[in-house]
Amino acid sequence: MKIEQKELERQVVERMRMDNPWWTTGIIPPDIHQMRRRLYLDSFYAKVKESKVRRGIVLMGPRRVGKTILIYHTIERLLSDGVKPQNIIYLSIDTPIYNGMALEMLMNIAKQSLQKVPTDEDLYVFYDEVQYLKDWEIHLKSLVDTYRFTRFIVSGSAAAALKMKSNESGAGRFHDFTLPPLTFNEYIHLQDLNNLIVPKKIEWNHQEIDAFDTIDLPKLNQYFIQYINFGGYPEVVFSKEIQQDPGRYMRRDIVDKVMLKDLPGLYGISDTQELYRLFIHIAYRSGCEFSYEEMSQESGIRKGDIRKYISYLESAFLIKVIHRIDANAKRMQRITQFKIYLTNPSLRCALFSPLTETDKALGSMVETALFAQRIQRDDEEIFYANWKMGRANGEVDMIGLDRRNQKPSWAVEMKWSDRYFDAPGELKSLLAFMDKNHLPAAIVSSRTKYGTKNLENVSMTFIPSALYAYLLGHNTIEQRKK
Predict the structure, then answer these.
(1) How many other C-beta atoms lie within 10 A of the C-beta of residue 82?
(2) pTM for the whole structure
(3) Phi–psi pair at 182, nearest 5 degrees
(4) How far is CA 249 from the centre of its chain?
């Protein structure tokens, strides 16, 4: 038995040395080094290096968004900043030979296998795919409390499970960091197309603000449509083979694993086909207004189950529910209607088919793409407005409420059309909302038009949708850095 145990430990150590090549080479694997960095690297690295507050970091997000690659690039930056190679330990918990081994045991075996055992100070330990270990959150909390000067970072693809357990057990001990699908400016960055973008000053609310323009808007619009179809996941961006059959890859590796494995395992869902059917129903209508009553009638699923399934899908970062306010920016006391957006428009392509510039559904996917750039920010709450007052009906696509005073701070109407640039007065719902809430300025996205239109005492700034998506993604990443 002792021989078997020693042989097991020898194999574990060999595996650790294979997964931590920098212990001997001082560098990360060359193929990963050559990959372009996600723009979230700076904000994530700042959390990893933060030493004043003793917290573990839980890196979470949808499947296939590049969490493991982000960890490797973080390790590379630690090495370049002078951290000793043997003070960085990477352990992938889904490795079969690690099965059943506690986080602390794995760390101690790794430390003892090194020629010079590192001290707890300035030690960084990364546990990847941590959801494969039962009660990982209890293990992590104990490690954070015990090893006061070691930085612990865990990550996993079962985002719903990680978030739930982090909230339950990690209060005051964990810091959650969500890595979303690619933003449009990351998509441009990863494809080395930054030469298409140029800085620009635009007028907004009677002052100049920083924005962006392009040297070739038709080409940028083509890339924007490609982003809507294929741009959410790094692997898909760089694989023509996957783009030729996105449904097979994305549905199998992203949607199916969440629907058939992650969520049923976490919530004990017995009828996975019912959950899948509801998600298909939502994905096809991303950006539409829903009600539990109508969804139940159309899908044949009970309203109580629909409520649960929506919360499950949202916890898995597949959808985002946006709530409604009225013309006076007041929240509805009874939630009967709401909008649902895919967190990434390319999920629709995975389930159905790629969109072209002439497809009628492209407008709703442009709206979904613009929402996807914004929903990772936490400085404002996002709503949409919809009201019926006598004979007057109205709707505004996206509104930000200031968290402090719950008053509208901005409003956006999202269009994939240039029609309203020459007829801004036709945007009657937006103008009515601005008047009732004393908003002096608003943004309207267009297909190609750029400029400001002044109407009496308010102004509307028109921005091409592709450039507005780029600006929103840029601002979201900058806000995360702060």
Answers:
(1) 7
(2) 0.92
(3) -60, 135
(4) 19
